Amino acid sequence: MRDNEIKLKAIAALTGLRSGVGTDYVSRLLGEVTPTEFLVPATGDPEEIGRAVLDQLSRPLSALINGFVLAFEVVADSYDATDSQTSTEELLQALALELASDTD
């Protein structure tokens, strides 16, 4: 799967969550970007095998994160263009404070 296709999956997942399609659908959608098979060295030690798997996971996961960030930037820019009393930065800071004070 190409990087752009993976970014589209991230945007589709966010859109789906906001429209109420359900987390099972979104999980399956995001699962499509994760490789189901990995090429590993047949004679590799655990470190080499782990590195091979990580290398094969990093590109699709990076593209997925980039898709989420791109979608957020578009929504944040649109939100900030409104006459809202609260900026995107203030919303994010409030969320960070809420998460930081959560003691679970």
- How many helices does DSSP assign? 4
Terminal CA distance: 37 Å
Helix-and-strand structural type: mainly alpha
Largest sheet: none
- From the alpha carbons, calculate the radius of gyration and give it in angstroms: 18 Å
Mean pLDDT across every amino acid position: 93
Could you name the ranges where pLDDT drops below 50 across 5 or more consecutive residues? none
Q: How much strand content do the residues show?
A: under 5%
Question: How many β strands by DSSP?
Answer: 0
- Percent helix, as a range, is over 70%
Molecular shape: elongated
Pattern of helices and strands = HHHH
How would you explain this protein's 3D organization?
The protein is an all-alpha fold and 104 residues long. It has helices at residues 3-19, 23-31, 46-80, 88-101. α1 (3-19) runs antiparallel to α2 and α1 (3-19) crosses α3. The model has no long low-confidence stretch (mean pLDDT 93).
